């Protein structure tokens, strides 16, 4: 198959990046893997380093750079948001409650997508809303699988405990009853990226009168299924 795009310098840069996919390479290694002339391989690797697409390891060998991870994360986020709309709408329709998708941003969580209940009493969380990581079922989800040190730090002043988060990890879902806001209950489950890391939380929320004081019994499975569909979308490449 011809891998030429007709833009020679890009084709050669792609050769360099492909060569580094299998691990660190010296300049001689790059020349051998790409078939490029030594000055050309060096010039391209240094130019790619300038753009953070290539970096150096402790031995001075060329390696793939941090910019590629940033672009990959952005692509994953776009894929998550592109899939979120229909999944949240379906979750809202089968539960009859408002559905949200949250991502962690530092010490807060942000609502990045939502499907509102169409009528009646509802818990409205507009897209872009920034909420605390100290209360609420989605905060529990975004905290539960954190590194121990960050988890212990995050529990300071939280409305939930380490024991509660242990239960969340065991069950695979979280619930809250009046934790974030009086009279509001919610159920959340984790969305996992390709590395199995928790990247977001899917929630349904509404008045305790409808969700009862055991909202997980009613909606945990639906929320887990929705989170599973989003996780699957993130695992698909291309």
TrEMBL record:
UniProt entry tagged with the keyword Magnesium: no
InterPro entries referenced in this protein's UniProt entry, alphabetically: GAF-like_dom_sf, HTH_MetabolicPath_Reg, Tscrpt_reg_IclR_C, Tscrpt_reg_IclR_N, WH-like_DNA-bd_sf, WH_DNA-bd_sf
Signal peptide (UniProt feature, chain positions): none
UniProt keyword Membrane, yes or no: no
IclR-ED domain: residues covered: 67-236
SMART domains in alphabetical order: HTH_ICLR
One Gene Ontology biological process: negative regulation of DNA-templated transcription
Gene3D superfamilies per the UniProt record, alphabetical: 3.30.450.40, Winged helix-like DNA-binding domain superfamily/Winged helix DNA-binding domain
Descriptive protein name: IclR family transcriptional regulator
Species annotation: Streptomyces variegatus
